[in-house]
Amino acid sequence: MNMKKLAVAVGAIAISGSALAELSANIGAASNYVWRGATQTDDSAAISGGIDYAHDSGFYAGTWASNVDFGSGGEAEWDLYGGFANSVGDFEYDVGVIYYAYPDSDDADFSELALTGGYKWLSAGINYTFYSQVDDLRGSAEAFVEGDLYYHLDASFEVAPTWTLGGTIGYYDFDNDGEANTDLSYAHYQLDVGKSAGDFGDFTMSISKADKEANGGDDDYKVFVSWNKTFN
Fold it and tell me: Quick one: pLDDT at residue 19?
């Protein structure tokens, strides 16, 4: 459930694998860890870090960790991911698998298959939950179970030297929401303004909005800032 650290969960490993160094590390901080429109830290700050490996062939693998706070248990998240990313002309693609682990919570882990395609400044993708231990950690047994789908459309522009403007529209379709006669599925929207500070890392200011209460959270506008630094 990475922040905008990995743009779509595997996005920090940019879609074009051949342009990456073989091994890199990253650290980050955010005033709020927001994932798919929902806070993962009860609207509090997060500290994160990870290590990534990428081969010129397009194969990549990595791990990332952050503090979380779901209110009913769970204080740490540890992600493992891998896949293949490359390009054909201007079209870029990424096929990956992500495992979301919560070491201090019982029956909370789940895994997704992530497919992303991009052309120049626009990308789109789908994530499919194919494995889940989740029961009622987030207050509902219907969320984060096998069969859930997440769709997203993303755009990113360089509006001036060292400045970027990006946006995301996403929709989380929970597979079992009908079992409790409650529709848990929701859409969310996010706008990001980024500033590269060179050796001092990258800063991002974001505003996010879910169209209804998401994952036990709320549907208020969330404004937060984040910082990320990569070491090659």
Answer: 46
